[in-house]
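Structure first, sequence second, as always.
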């Protein structure tokens, strides 16, 4: 049975686009198309050829996006039927086999979009709830098939659909799907509770950021936990307190969660309450600070406050290329202020989630900032993506984190 029930569009690609597809890049922009045999609608299949009419690959059309085709397959011709989709997903799940079989962790990324061969589609699991996040309207005509296959393979209780702002603004996006909603199973009446390394967390698939939680920092949260015993920890841009909870669970002396969002801090409080059966968590003082991070760090310096560990995990400072210089200045300013409230020899943890900032550029910015205020960083470790957030192409690399003593 065909997985894609839309039209097939024959497309001849320019030579640079052919080379990119053959190298595995998942995107084609309009300048990469020489000719096509008819107009395309979102979700139509693009059958791709080179200038000599040799088969190159197959992609999904999105004429409402600058990324006009997203590649599903390249190489030899194949039939994209339901069995093809299931086999692809089985292979994707196999990469996460250790996570999927771990009863202590029931929250993780099942499909990482382009990096897993399903461009524009992210699927996160929170216990028995799956969240589909679409970055292209090209998947809209195929939602029923996606739901059917995931139900068959995983038997979830419900499936939530979320779309990014670009998709919500697209002319072909149905008005009923512009906001997050349940597309299969019972409606949500509150947060979903899931496990991460045995700790309980709330996820808000309907109203939370991303798909309801930041799953990509799971491994870094565990690293922070191991370093936190006996330390006074400041978690800046704490959101719902993930790093804070790990620090407390591993015997931190005290934990402070700093965020500008009161609802996020309320969720952090709830996450601690969910785990009060854990002696270390119950015994760790947890202070909530609602303030702008940059302003609060200055106030803490003025008040003479010092911490043994400072975690800096800000949102992306560079949404587009023009933002890069300002983003690097913001990282530098943030690190300087973070180090200024760090005890001598304390641990700095600094992360970036901007794909436009290369890892080494970010690491150099952090180490230079610390050195500029006379606190050179002795690097402990540098980390990148976890196994459930694989990197399949250059633009897919966004997360980087550096640990050091200053």
């Amino acid at each position: 049975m065909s997985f894609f029930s839309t039209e097939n569009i024959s497309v001849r690609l320019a030579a640079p686009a052919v080379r990119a597809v053959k190298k595995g890049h998942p995107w084609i922009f309009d300048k990469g198309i020489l000719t096509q045999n008819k107009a395309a609608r979102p979700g139509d299949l693009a059958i791709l050829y080179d200038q000599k009419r040799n088969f190159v690959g197959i992609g999904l059309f999105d004429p409402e996006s600058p990324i006009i085709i997203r590649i599903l397959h390249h190489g030899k011709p194949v039939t994209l039927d339901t069995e093809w989709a299931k086999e692809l997903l089985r292979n994707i799940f196999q990469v996460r086999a250790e996570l999927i079989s771990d009863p202590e962790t029931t929250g993780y990324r099942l499909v990482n979009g382009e990096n897993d061969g399903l461009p524009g589609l992210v699927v996160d699991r929170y216990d028995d709830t799956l969240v589909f996040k679409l970055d292209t309207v090209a998947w809209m005509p195929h939602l029923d098939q996606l739901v059917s296959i995931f139900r068959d393979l995983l038997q979830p209780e419900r499936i939530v659909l979320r779309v990014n702002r670009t998709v919500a603004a697209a002319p072909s996006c149905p008005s009923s799907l512009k906001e997050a909603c349940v597309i299969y199973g019972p409606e949500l009446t509150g947060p979903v509770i899931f496990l991460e390394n045995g700790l309980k967390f709330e996820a808000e698939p309907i109203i939370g950021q991303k798909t309801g939680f930041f799953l990509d920092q799971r491994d870094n949260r565990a690293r922070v936990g191991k370093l936190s015993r006996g330390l006074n920890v400041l978690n800046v841009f704490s959101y719902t307190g993930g790093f804070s909870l790990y620090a407390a669970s591993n015997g931190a002396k005290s934990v402070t969660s700093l965020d500008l969002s009161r609802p996020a801090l309320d969720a952090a409080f709830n996450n601690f309450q969910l785990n009060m059966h854990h002696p270390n968590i119950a015994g760790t003082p947890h202070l909530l600070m609602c303030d702008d991070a940059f302003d609060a760090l200055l106030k803490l310096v003025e008040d003479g406050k010092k911490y043994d560990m400072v975690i800096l995990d800000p949102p992306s400072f560079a949404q587009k290329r023009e933002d890069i210089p300002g983003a690097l200045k913001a990282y530098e300013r943030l690190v300087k202020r973070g180090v200024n409230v760090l005890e001598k020899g304390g641990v700095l943890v600094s992360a970036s989630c901007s794909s436009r900032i290369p890892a080494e550029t970010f690491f150099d910015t952090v180490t230079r900032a610390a050195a500029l205020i006379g606190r050179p960083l002795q690097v402990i470790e540098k980390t990148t993506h976890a196994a459930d957030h694989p990197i399949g192409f250059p633009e897919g690399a966004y997360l980087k984190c550096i640990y050091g003593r200053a």
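Margin note: Residues 214-405 form a domain with the Rossmann fold fold (CATH 3.40.50.150).
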